[in-house]
Amino acid sequence: MLDYALIHQALTRLSDHRVVTPLLEYPLINEMLGGRVLFKAENLQKTGSFKFRGAFNKIASLEPSQRERGVVAYSSGNHAQGVAAAAQLFSIDATVVMPTDAPLLKRRNTEKLGARLVLYDQKTEDRKAIAEGISAKTGAIIVPPYDDEMVMAGQGTIGIEIVTQLRMSRMEADFLLCPVGGGGLMAGISTVLRSLMPSTQLYCVEPEGFDDTRRSLEQGRRLANHGSAISICDAIITPMPGEMTFPVNLANLDGGFAVEESAIISAVDMLFEMAKLVVEPGGAVGLAALLANKLELQGRTVVIILSGGNMDLGRFRAQFKVL
Amino acid sequence: MLDYALIHQALTRLSDHRVVTPLLEYPLINEMLGGRVLFKAENLQKTGSFKFRGAFNKIASLEPSQRERGVVAYSSGNHAQGVAAAAQLFSIDATVVMPTDAPLLKRRNTEKLGARLVLYDQKTEDRKAIAEGISAKTGAIIVPPYDDEMVMAGQGTIGIEIVTQLRMSRMEADFLLCPVGGGGLMAGISTVLRSLMPSTQLYCVEPEGFDDTRRSLEQGRRLANHGSAISICDAIITPMPGEMTFPVNLANLDGGFAVEESAIISAVDMLFEMAKLVVEPGGAVGLAALLANKLELQGRTVVIILSGGNMDLGRFRAQFKVL
């Protein structure tokens, strides 16, 4: 069961391997937004996103006899790199099923980390079925992107770091905003916060048109996105909340916000100029929610999870216009 | 006298005020460059550069009766913001003499931090004389950009953090590369390293055409730059090594490197894509030196100081072409 003990165990496994990402604060951003804004910079994590934590914890928790069969994963790019880097540390094979239209940087870096790439067409093929086929044939263990206890527990280690960092500065957070795709990061972090800092209000943030978790929280059951929407947030546009992550998030969260693409682009640009951080669109939705006035921040403290920074330089230079 | 004790005293003054910037490592960058590359990310410091440290230490070291008269500084932009932010913390007035062609971001942020701006023409006016005139009239204390013991000691606190961070990971550095303008950052850091980690080889890095410190180290005396060169590294294009900083650097350094603008632009882009960090050209010259093969890194460990990240988004998007 996903609980604080399982997440603390993950932290012990990860201790020498993950980057303790900083919790950063900028006086000019505080002034502009009227409260204290603390950024948990997981874009500075190994492989450029939080995904390394969950992948490493999953692989580390396998029996050696399972592990040596290698691993297989499906991912739009961030989980792919996390799995590849973790597999490399254990010197085992990794295969990643990735869409043909994944950002080039994510594809290139996954290969550089030694993983074998299997490309598929997002519109016509089922990535999970492809991964299960590979697993059946080779015996490789599947490392799911979110619906897995060990993966969720690995992502949850961010929550323990945040609470430790806040306490070292004798602070409490009134709010925490976190990007949500499948919901593994949110499930892990919210489990820690509910246990260690229960007064903090927890909200998930999604792009408009992909606010399946927000709507599902309101209805109390898992709802899918409509297939027609598009978004620049490639990292977090999953079809519906995870089977295992959703009950956790339903129990833990105070609600969710959906943000417009224009606010997301403003957030990415602001993080560049004012925070000196490269954050991909899907990683910047938390700040976008603040820019869109979703929260009454006045005088209060908010933690914003910046979940990843894997963004093609060319796309950023072109201001996310279609190249 | 600038020594370890003075720098340690500065660290005590700064303790609750500065950001302990992370020392970051990226597996893919290591692989590409063939050694361990550790980035000290001072672009994540308050005001986006290391300059806050020296300015704060200087202002904190003043007698209250001096301090209340306010401060005045001259700067192309990073020192300006550092002085403005430190003065704001002490609730005293700050005036900054800044060139009319300073990057917009630097100018805007200095004003946002509550400083009064006095603009001057770099080609025809003497910024130091203007600041001295203001000081004579108002009694404001001058906070020099580098030729000052308290300023150098403040910058040196970075050296203590680096040694602490290396030791926590049971590491030693073979090399350290640091951007140099006036030389205050280099003087402070090198004083710490010579004292605590004497086997580390220390090198300053400058843009071609502004390698006054490199040439001065070779000749053993202060040489000026030729007036005709231009560079995108606005933060570090000082006319000649500092009077007080140069003897320190001459005693401490193993040498210096000059790097081409194209290598500097590559370094800025690489830090964006691979390190998820926004680093201004002058702050990225250390990595540029590695990209230009100035060091034989094979299997060894280098610390690279990323000294600042204050760069206009528009200039970066235009790839530093003249707008």
**Percent helix among the residues of chain A?**
40-55%
Topology pattern of chain A, helix = H, strand = E:
HEHEHHEHEHEHEHEHEHHEHHEH
Q: What is the mean pLDDT of chain A?
A: 95
What would you call the quaternary organization?
A: homodimer
Gap between N and C termini of chain A: 45 Å
User: Can you tell me the overall shape of chain A?
Assistant: globular
Which structural class best describes the helix and strand composition of chain A?
alpha/beta
Main sheet record of chain A:
6 strands, mixed
Helical run tally of chain A? 14
Going across the major beta sheet of chain A, what is the strand order?
A: 1-2-10-7-8-9
Contiguous runs where pLDDT drops below 50 for at least 5 residues of chain A: none
Please tell me how large the radius of gyration of chain A is.
Answer: 18 Å
Strand content of chain A is 15-25%
Which two protein chains have the largest interface (Cβ within 8 Å of the partner's Cβ), and how many residues from each?
A-B, 35 and 35 residues
Number of strands of chain A: 10
